[in-house]
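Example 5.3 — DDE Tnp4 domain-containing protein
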Amino acid sequence: MTIPRMVSNRRRCVFGHQSEQLFRIPEVVRGKILVDHRLYVPSDARCCTKHLKKGDWVQLAPSELRSYSPTQIEDMVDILRKRGNRPPFLDFEFIEEVDDEVVREWTGLNRVQFQDLFLSVPSLSGERRPKTALGLWLEKSRTGETDGRLASLVSLPRSTFERVMGRAREALTAEFVPRHLRIGVGITREIVRAHQTTVVTELFCDIDKKAVVLDGTYVYIQKSSNDAFQRSSYSGHKHRSLLKPFMVVSLDGHIIDALGPFQANVNDATIARNMGRNC
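Solution (predicted structure tokens):
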């Protein structure tokens, strides 16, 4: 067979380096290596953390042609069959191997944006599968699907899915949000000035004053079995159960702050007055 095969060694990285931490190479990655580089990586081959994250598989170069066992030939055929028949697959730990359109469809971000967001939340690196935690949170925010359905897509128990997603939410709240929301913290006067439109400046403001838009929006929720919460979350205007995040945005749509969520039976004027007293 003219397709080279990497050596099967559970104690050594496929790149030939010694390492204390070696991991099994995911099948989706082995499939990409096989198709893109005409190189077969056995299922029991291992890779260190450094090379697994770097993903520079073009540097793999076996020193000699090796024979194949029947099991390895069967494994290679299975990889190709699954790769041809499977639906779009999301493995967030190897996001660079997933089609960009698939990533955008499920998370609302492309691969580069996903990586930038991940790097802005360094505390997630302590998780066992850090990119998966972020990806699951983005999936939930993007699609609004039930936890059970999303958990089944990534072959996780629902309880594990919710715990991992919760950690991502906490990390984003602690590290990402403060850098990008709230005047005086993540938003400076210079940023607000940069997003001021010429028309609004001419009509409503002088050079030292800035205009912003305050408005409530809606997040629809299921009817609650808790009677008190159901009464406070039911909107007589929309005739649905909902919560109201209150947005502060510049005139070109740049988000300055997001407050709440507030109860459905609290109007925008009341929220704005409370903001004026507390800010």
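Remark. Strands lie at 22-24, 46-48, 213-216, 219-220, 234-235, 240-249, 255-262.
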